[in-house]
Fold:
Amino acid sequence: MRTDDLTKHIARELRPLLGRGESASVTRLVMEDIFGYRSGNRPRKLTQEEQILAWTTINRLKAGEPVQYVTGIADFFGLQLKVTPDVLIPRPETEELVEWILEDHPPGTVHSVIDLGTGSGCIPLALQVRRPSWNCRGVDLSEAALEIARENARKLGVSVTFHHGDVLEESMSQGRYDVVVSNPPYIPPSERSRMDASTLEHEPELALFVPEENPLLFYRRLAELGHVGLKPGGRLYCETNEFNSEEVMKLFREAGYADVVRRKDLQKKWRMVRVTLPESDLDSA
Structure:
């Protein structure tokens, strides 16, 4: 079998499950990231080992495993990051959150940033690549996730620091930051029925779900941490559940933050919130 034959075969096998458009996209990722073959390249014959790998890959995809876990690679903000089931697959809306931070902080500024619940490290890594003068850090509860984040930093050749910590217990003792950012767990179990089966079956629940009775748990903690970890005038950015972004905004207003705004993602869903710690905040003095 040649690479062009395999391309057609994978697309044909996945089409009944994913539809024509998504099956073509997944096939392209598989061929590029696993077999090093791009559409338009001269076809080559697959080795026996590659043919075995091809059937294994197809079976994993047909079983619903996300293509990023199958290839071990996720594209994020122009970067190729290693991902495993120990970390969430970076989403387009997280790219939009990174873009918002970059819009607010143009080149030439020197900033310190901490990402709480960093997972694969996608947020601080993308920021560090675009703003090399910044000092970016990442915190996560999962040691396995931190190993992935550190490996991504090594491969990209950027000096982001990652350390172990629980957001719910984090003291922010490392210093004060210009930017705090987080994509915290925010899905109550009652919303499972709205989620893709591939997410439920393969991505880490620790990074997805919050207690049903306390869906704003992590935002309350972020509000507390912002008062001790942000510099006066610093900003906190976070992703939110599209169904409770107004409640998140209210929480931050009541916690004493200014300039509380939210932003829709490209799907027209309220998914991002930005707040500012007032210059006169006493806890940050």
In short: Strands lie at 73-76, 79-82, 112-116, 135-140, 161-164, 177-182, 230-239, 258-264, 270-276. The longest strand covers residues 230-239. The chain has a mean pLDDT of 94. The chain has two domains: 3-63, 77-284.
